[in-house]
């Protein structure tokens, strides 16, 4: 068995001492050590968190103050009636009180009502008239129907169509919206007496009829229907 050189033994002992000192200072790796701090990585993480927080924010629509119209609320009206005219201003006022009001849709509905009223009057259909006329106009129509029936007269009528229907005025009267139309229609109409003889009109001729009718609706009511409140025959 040989002997170790004294210098070799010294370096071995020194190496062992240094090893234990480093172990005490640095400690052991357990797998749960925190990674070294990387400032660039931290900045990227903060930016990512900020972006995620931004994505999680829901932007609610701005609530319009009372009386402020929706964007382009008057677009259909401006296309229908020239801006800054009395008619345009009147239609805008109705729109302010009834957001569902659209002039074109109103005219389409008024044309349908016109035909129904004309034919219901000719047929003496009081039930239909009651749903489409104001109380005052209804009373006038019913009185005329009553006089006709008392004489045993009948109206023979055929509705040909409407050539033109234009809104000529619009306004608010209190809480009521009033819209007046000038309507040009074609109608075949003749009144016969109880013997069947024609006493008015012509059963073979298409006649042009010009009417100015006003429809109204209470904008404070849930009832969406308009009623005829005034009639005038144009010469």
Automatic annotation (TrEMBL):
One of its GO terms (biological process) is protein import into mitochondrial matrix. The keyword Transmembrane helix applies. Its main location: membrane. The chain crosses the membrane at residues 6-26. Residues 87-233 form the Tim44-like domain. Residues 31-71 are annotated as: Disordered. It is found in: Membrane. Keywords: Membrane, Transit peptide, Transmembrane, Transmembrane helix. GO terms for cellular component: membrane. Pfam families: Tim44. GO terms for molecular function: protein-folding chaperone binding. It comes from the Bacteria. Belongs to the Tim44 family. PANTHER family: MITOCHONDRIAL IMPORT INNER MEMBRANE TRANSLOCASE SUBUNIT TIM44 (PTHR10721). This is Tim44/TimA family putative adaptor protein.
